[in-house]
Design a protein that fits this description.
Elements (H helix, E strand, L loop, with lengths): L6 E5 L15 E11 L5 E10 L4 E13 L4 E3 L3 H8 L3 E7 L2
Parallel strand pairs: 2-6
Antiparallel strand pairs: 1-2, 2-3, 3-4, 4-5
């Protein structure tokens, strides 16, 4: 899984403490997936899964993303090179087009 371009493995350190005061000192694998996208590429959903070393999913995070042009005050497509990178992400098992 760590050889997948949409996956990275990290080792948290003792000093990394969450807002509840818990230490997160363990190895995690983080997946990055494209879960949805509208047909013009203006909006999409990224999904990250944080997987513990024992294989249990610690959490899933889905983020709705859009690029906003401050000058025109409108949602716009991402730059071509970024759109290409987004499209190269692995598709989630439940990938669906955004409507």
């Amino acid at each position: 899984m760590a050889d997948d371009p949409g996956t990275q493995r990290i080792r948290t350190r003792w000093g990394e403490i969450d807002s509840n005061g818990y230490t997160l000192a363990e190895e995690l694998t983080i997946t990055n997936e494209l879960a949805a996208m509208n047909e013009d590429g203006f909006r999409f959903v990224f999904r990250n899964r944080f997987i513990k070393a024992n294989g249990k999913v610690a959490c899933k995070i889905s983020s709705l993303v859009a690029f906003f042009d401050l000058a025109s005050r409108k949602i716009v497509a991402p730059p071509d090179n970024l759109l290409k990178a987004i499209l190269s992400l692995p598709r989630a098992d439940d990938y669906a087009p955004l409507t």
